């Protein structure tokens, strides 16, 4: 490294005063009759301020004022301005929420400034700040990014379920051309989804990014079973069988396949329940439940619904019409 | 209720009337107007308030003023002699051991106590010693370098 010219270290002019204790920082300023400020800060993360009682603090000798957000608003003082606003990619201005130095309605984090005490000495300001009584009404708290994401997801979940069921019902209607088919196939599915959520509540598994696909997957597998069973059942009925005979024959054929698939899938994911990884264990419990319950729904609930919806089972009208034509 | 505290500050006999709860740093800064000693955290973590009390480095925000009765207290203002920078101060300037300068008085006072115990400290020993001194300009690298150089100058009696 060179000692002079390009690349040489340059001594800073301000260093001398800093290393000798002669720097001048804001806290070092001491003027005659100056006042000291002490802030009253929120001990809780999120709460509405129901009231601030500063009467005791104001009685302390040496206290000059206790100011709150309401005082600042009354004086028409705005929030802290953003020093350097930038534009979004699409040219829209930066979102700039109000940021008042003293909160006006609700505290948003621990340490949020609620009031400021001005007094003749630092000690008096501190003492008086402790005497300001703030009435907090607790509000819900979102602590951490995961919690915030999960809150967003619990809202997104309903939209997702609506879309999934919309698609399933639409496609089943197009495929079978019958609202009875839609009811027979969709109702067991919805029951499974609802029970899955109940199970999550019982097991203490929260709605997370990770649980979203489980419900979608459950619907996906469940709709397969339903379509196979319904389709076979209606075929037998169309051949002129009674509902009981058609059901028995369906169980012997497609029913066996559905039961086999459901049980094998459930055994596969069931082993995850003993995983030391909590996420995998939770997924194991939920998926096992969904695979098994979807199977039960398709093999048992679907035909029951079919029996109830049309005296002689699905496509009965068409079957009757076909029989009379013959 | 107030109480009189008398002590020696940077070689000068001083006294002040303070409340019993007054901290040593408040006495030094507010009553004796030596503002080179800083309060960074108020919770004994940052070390910006380090002074020497009877030759030992102390966080002056963690000691009551009355505890310093009769003591010999040295602050950053008392380190340079006759307008001449102490070798440790000179080393901090030379090696860019500071940016904003807020933690610097505490750093220098801590470093001086270290060198008293250990005239030739290694990087590891310096870093361990500075455990109670925080720098928020993230200048530790140069601070450690400055303290090694300062210790060397002190050994060679510059």
How is this structure best described in words?
- The complex is a heterodimer of chains A (326) and B (158).
- With 326 residues, chain A is mainly α.
- Chain A has 2 domains: 28-76 and 101-141, Alpha-Beta Complex (Aldehyde Oxidoreductase, domain 3), CATH 3.90.1170.50; 145-325, Multidrug efflux transporter AcrB transmembrane domain (Multidrug efflux transporter AcrB transmembrane fold), CATH 1.20.1640.10.
- Helices cover 55% and strands 10% of the residues of chain A.
- Chain A contains 10 helices and 6 strands; from the N terminus they run αββαβαββαβαααααα.
- Chain A has helices at residues 15-19, 55-59, 69-74, 122-131, 145-176, 179-203, 212-238, 243-270, 278-309, 316-325, and strands at residues 36-41, 47-53, 63-68, 106-107, 113-119, 133-138.
- The longest helix of chain A is centred in the middle third of the chain and has 32 residues, at 145-176.
- The termini of chain A are far apart.
- The relative contact order of chain A is 0.09.
- By secondary structure, chain B is α+β, with helices and mostly antiparallel strands.
- Chain B folds into 2 domains: 3-78, Ubiquitin-like (UB roll) (Roll); 87-155, [2Fe-2S]-binding domain (DNA polymerase, domain 1, Orthogonal Bundle).
- Helix content of chain B is 34%, strand content 16%.
- Chain B is built from 5 helices and 5 strands; from the N terminus they run ββαβββαααα.
- In chain B, strands 2-1-5-3-4 form a 5-stranded mixed beta sheet, with helices on both faces.
- In chain B, strand 3 (50-53) and strand 4 form a beta hairpin.
- The longest helix of chain B has 16 residues, at 140-155.
- The model of chain B has no long low-confidence stretch (mean pLDDT 95).
- The interface between A and B is medium-sized, with 20 and 30 residues.
């Amino acid at each position: 490294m060179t000692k002079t010219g390009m690349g040489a270290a340059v001594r800073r002019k301000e260093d001398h005063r800093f290393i000798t204790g002669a720097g001048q920082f804001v806290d070092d300023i001491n003027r005659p009759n100056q006042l000291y400020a002490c802030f009253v800060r929120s001990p809780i993360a999120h709460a509405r301020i129901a009231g601030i009682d500063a009467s005791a603090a104001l009685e302390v000798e040496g206290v000059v004022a206790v100011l709150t957000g309401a005082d600042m608003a009354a004086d028409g003082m705005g929030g802290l301005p953003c020093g350097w606003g930038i534009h979004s990619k699409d040219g829209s201005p930066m979102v700039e929420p109000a940021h008042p130095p003293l909160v006006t309605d609700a505290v948003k984090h621990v340490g949020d400034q609620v009031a400021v005490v001005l007094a003749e000495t630092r000690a008096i300001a501190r003492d008086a700040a402790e005497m300001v009584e703030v009435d907090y009404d607790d509000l819900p708290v979102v602590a951490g990014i995961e919690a915030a994401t999960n809150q967003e997801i619990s809202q997104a979940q309903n939209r997702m379920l609506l879309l999934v069921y919309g698609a399933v019902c639409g496609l089943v209607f197009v495929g079978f051309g019958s609202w009875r088919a839609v009811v027979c196939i969709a109702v067991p599915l919805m029951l499974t989804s609802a029970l899955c959520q109940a199970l999550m509540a019982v097991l203490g598994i929260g709605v997370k990014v990770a649980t979203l696909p489980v419900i979608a997957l459950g619907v996906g597998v469940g709709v397969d079973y339903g379509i196979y069973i319904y389709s076979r059942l209606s075929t037998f009925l169309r051949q002129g069988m009674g509902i009981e005979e058609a059901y028995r024959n369906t169980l012997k054929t497609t029913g066996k396949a559905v039961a086999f698939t459901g049980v094998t899938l459930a055994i596969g994911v069931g082993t995850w329940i003993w995983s030391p990884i909590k996420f995998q264990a939770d997924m194991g419990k939920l998926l096992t439940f969904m695979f098994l319950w979807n199977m039960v729904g398709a093999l048992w609930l679907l035909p029951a619904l079919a029996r109830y919806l049309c005296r002689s089972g699905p496509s009965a009208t068409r079957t009757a019409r076909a029989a009379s034509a013959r | 209720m107030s109480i009189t505290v008398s002590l020696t500050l940077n070689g000068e006999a001083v006294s002040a009337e303070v409340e019993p709860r007054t901290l040593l740093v408040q006495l030094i800064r507010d009553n004796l107007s030596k503002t080179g000693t800083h309060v960074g955290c108020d919770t004994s973590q940052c070390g910006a308030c380090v002074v020497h009390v009877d030759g030992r480095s102390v966080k002056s925000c963690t000691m009551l003023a009355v505890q310093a009765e009769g003591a010999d207290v040295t602050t950053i203002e008392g380190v340079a002699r006759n307008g001449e920078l102490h070798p440790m101060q000179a080393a901090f300037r030379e090696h860019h051991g500071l940016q904003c300068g807020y933690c610097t008085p505490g750093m220098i006072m801590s470093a001086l106590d270290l060198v008293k115990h250990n005239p030739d400290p290694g990087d590891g020993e310096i870093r361990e010693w500075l455990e109670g001194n925080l720098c928020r300009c993230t200048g530790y690298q140069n601070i450690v370098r400055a303290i090694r150089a300062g210790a060397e100058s002190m050994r060679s009696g510059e």
